[in-house]
Amino acid sequence: INTSRTPLGPRQDISRIAYYTEYDRHLAAAVSAGKTMATAYLDSNLNNPLLVGPKTQLSVGVSDRTMAGSVDRVLKVFHHSEINTEQSFWSSNIRYGDATDVRGIIQKILDIHKVRWTSCFGLRLTCCQNRDQVHWLHPDMGVSHIREKYEQARPNEEWRYELRIRYLPKGFVQQFTEDKPTLNYFYHQVKNDYMTQYGDKVEQDVALKLGCLEIRRFFKEMRGNALDKKSNYELLEKDVGLRRFFPKDLLDSVKAKTLRKLIQQTFKQVANLNDEQCILKFLETLAPIYRYDKEFFKCALGSSWVIQVELAIGPEEGISYLTDKGSTPTHLANFNQVQSIQYSAMEEKDRKGMLQLNVAGAAEPLTVTTASLTTAENLADLIDGYCRLVSMETHSFIVRVQKEGERALPSIPKLSNTEKKLEAVRKGVRAISVSEDLSGDETDDYAEIVDEEDTYTMPSTRDYEIQRDRIELGRCIGEGQFGDVHQGVYNSPDKPSLSVAIKTCKNCTTDSVREKFLQEALTMRQFDHPHIVKLIGVITDNPVWIIMELCTLGELRSFLQVKKYSLDLATLILYAYQLSTALAYLESKRFVHRDIAARNVLVSSVDCVMLGDFGLSRYMEDSSYYKASKGKLPIKWMAPESINFRRFTSASDVWMFGVCMWEILMQGVKPFQGVKNNDVIGRIENGERLAMPAQCPPTLYSLMTKCWSYDPSKRPRFTELKTQLSTILEDEKVQQEERLRMEIRRQVTVSWDTGGSDEAPPKPSRPGYPSPRSSEDFFSSPQHNHVQRSAHGGTDSWNHLRTEHSALWSPNMEEGGCVGQALMEERLMKQQQQMEEDRRWLEQEESLMKAESRNSRGSVDREDGALQAPGGSQHIYQPVGKPEQVAPPKKPPRPGAPGHPGNLTTLCSVDSYNEGVKLQPQEISPPPTANLDRSNDKVYENVTGLVKAVIEMSNRIQPAAPEEYVPMVKEVGLALRTLLATVDETIPVLPASTHREIEMAQKLLNSDLAELIAKMKLAQQYVMTSLQKDYKKQMLMAAHALAVDAKNLLDVIDQSRLKMINQIHPH
């Protein structure tokens, strides 16, 4: 190996490398002598390629000087592999000694693949300049002799060593299905041969079928209709590449649009096959075109009088020949009949080869004359391999007068390198990154893999190993995939009695489990961020422990469920913002987390969360994405391209972060509850998304939907999310302060009006409406089968009221609240009494109502109810035809009581969508309208007009078609525009100190209208789905909220007018 052709980054020191490997992203035929490749060094005493040693020396203890002088003792061998579903040709560079033979090289690579059919493999030497020059290397030949023999004619760079399956047992397909690694290796070998040698020889329909079978096998989770989506097909075409699946001639000869339709149609025909069925179908379809189960040699039978034939060697027929292509094979011998094999060069100028087989029962040897000695050698190796396979012997059947460098020494012994790997873990694995070869072509199929310690920003170079006697193991506080988490104490010299979290490994008896478990620690040590859990140390001896920073409040999901009634909206948005800063940091470090969910976020304090659980995290190389092959993955949190293509990028992390934000706003509810994992991708591809949480601001939900864009390129980056979440958080804090101030003012006003009577406390400003400002309930999307939960407060003031008036019914009682049984029964009795009083009060109200003119009181009739003008303190919606009550009723309904119009259970009690969604009477929560002269009061008239428009829309929307929604909402919008214009005209004459409050009320109305429009669009979009009922109800609730806030605006203006009157005429 010419080390100058393998740049190693800033330090050209080959001793830094213990092992690294590279893959061929294209096909075997694309290799040329001038390409620069990375290499993988394996010591002859090692049997695993996963060893990484310390910086200054090789893990096997070879010094720099020794290694520099032994570069020529490395053999590069190409072999088929598929790691992380990235199909490719890999090359591993294996260090060998004087006693190393071909059998030892083969065994070394097969240890990587873990195959059982080791006797099927052979090593082939091919000339890169002349593909017809092929030498099959016998297992007994010494590697040193091979290089000396063949590199005299051509330099090392022009030779390519390939590991192939050459000797097939009878019924090999059935045999290989019992050994999946062997089946996969054989499949990749055949597919590679097809793409490089036979791709231009097959019919178009056959090439399409073979390509779609490979797509189906390669993307196991992809649905049958996934390629119908343009974004999925473009991802397959541009990111993955159609050249991976289809021959170049097909792609060049068919137009892109036609090709897309053909691929979509053909893929649906094989969509129901699993990966093994795809492989078997591929081999079956290709068999008539490419006889991968046989090898053919043009030769002559006999030595003196010869017959020109084509000799066929295969597992079923044994040794046979054909006189022409259309003839029936003539059987010559079975492999178990062959007693010895001998070959030599004939005494002629053309140097033909001669092969003799001693066959049991035959009177004379079977003699075969070949065109060259090389062909005779390859034929002899093939028959010898079959004989060894059939007889299950390791000795060769070839007899030579003069042995050509064979070694009688045993193969390389296989020693365990477990301790060396664990030592590498203790020292810390250096990053592996892909760097561009500046001298190479941009279309180069090979990438240089360089071992650069500076690829990761190490927070410290200190040793992370901790002595076990310094750790005091405490109680178990959680369980994970690989182990349990315990609370403990670390007695360090710097910080004695430091509380820590200790992650223990459940089943660390095997090396692979220990390596996977410690991988999380190796990942965590790369990071230093205030919202990422810090690694304190590791104990690599059994039992293996990882010591981390302790977050005393546990995981976020459980914390949200326990504290759901004490956390305000600003705090929830703060959690999302903090996570966005951590993920932006990971994005800058080019890491994908792959498991962003509330369960993997830890709570350090009430105002601080930390991202944890890096067991699935991976470093992204220059390809900017990572492909996962095996293991359990969080399907319900994953992006569609991750489910379909196992493709993980920063964009897929953005999708998962959007789901995590939804979990936070839903206060611990899991996504897609009741939906099977297999059905999730279908719902996503049908356009369904998680419904907006109850108290989620529209701007935040809009940000979530951007995170859930099906096309990854349309999702925002974490840096953008961090900025937008910061803005949303600041806005929410301002609105929170404003709501608190208005709530205090309302409480004072109510206390003046009631004169200290024992009335129920004032209701929140918008009962029964899941707005971003306050909420009594949240709706669960029906397609996710979420259980509808009881109401919870959405503002600080309302939470405060719940605390002070603890005698109110607790919504969490059904879920095991801490209220005693006796107190619960007492409250139920009180509620029954209140229900009866409410019923009698409603009857009294209806009997006392008087019919007055619409101008004087502003009532608006409708079929099933009437709207009282904003001048009263009664319900917005009332029955038609009843006289209006002169004085307010004595008993207003209580908030939260059964049958109360603000209760969402009443609002959503309609079982069927077709039966209608009707707004029930709802009480105006602000204080009564001031007793002012309403003549020529334009604001009053326009508020009444807006409420009329809302009622008209509510009455007409039930039987209306989706295309009729727009005119109805437009009428509401025009009424609101007229109202806001009137308010703008009124503001200048009002006191300047009240302008801010009026402007806030106007902004609230604009937000309400935007929310109504958004709900209308959703109702139109999902009109034929299971979501239509939910979104239609939310549309009606948004309209009702608009009417309530219009009444609030009138109250604010009335208060401003009273203030102005008091200033002019002080008492």
Automatic annotation (TrEMBL):
Q: Please give an example of a GO cellular component term from this record.
A: focal adhesion
Q: What is its EC number?
A: 2.7.10.2
Which Gene Ontology molecular function entries are recorded, alphabetically?
Answer: ATP binding; non-membrane spanning protein tyrosine kinase activity
Which residues belong to any copy of the FERM domain? 73-394
A Pfam family this chain is assigned to: FERM_C_FAK1
Give one GO biological process term. signal complex assembly
Domain Protein kinase per the UniProt entry, residue ranges: 471-729
Topological type in the membrane: Peripheral membrane protein
* Residues that bind ATP: 503
Give the UniProt subcellular location, in the record's own words: Cell junction, Focal adhesion; Cell membrane; Cytoplasm, Cytoskeleton, Cilium basal body
Composition bias (Basic and acidic residues) maps to 836-865
Q: What is its main location?
A: other
Q: Please give the SUPFAM superfamilies that the UniProt record associates with this protein.
A: FAT domain of focal adhesion kinase, PH domain-like, Protein kinase-like (PK-like), Second domain of FERM, Ubiquitin-like
Q: Which domain of life is it from?
A: Eukaryota
Q: Which UniProt keywords apply?
A: ATP-binding, Cell junction, Cell membrane, Cell projection, Cytoplasm, Cytoskeleton, Developmental protein, Kinase, Membrane, Nucleotide-binding, Phosphoprotein, Transferase, Tyrosine-protein kinase
The record, for InterPro entries, names: Band_41_domain, FADK_N, FAK1-like_FERM_C, FAK1/PYK2_FERM_C, FERM/acyl-CoA-bd_prot_sf, FERM_2, FERM_central, FERM_domain
Q: Which reaction does it catalyse?
A: L-tyrosyl-[protein] + ATP = O-phospho-L-tyrosyl-[protein] + ADP + H(+)
Q: Where is this region: Disordered?
A: 749-798, 830-908
**Matching PANTHER family:** FERM AND PDZ DOMAIN-CONTAINING PROTEIN FAMILY MEMBER, NON-SPECIFIC PROTEIN-TYROSINE KINASE
Put simply, this protein is called Focal adhesion kinase 1
At the highest ranks, the source species' classification is: Eukaryota, Metazoa, Chordata, Craniata, Vertebrata
Q: Which gene encodes it?
A: Nfu_g_1_017847
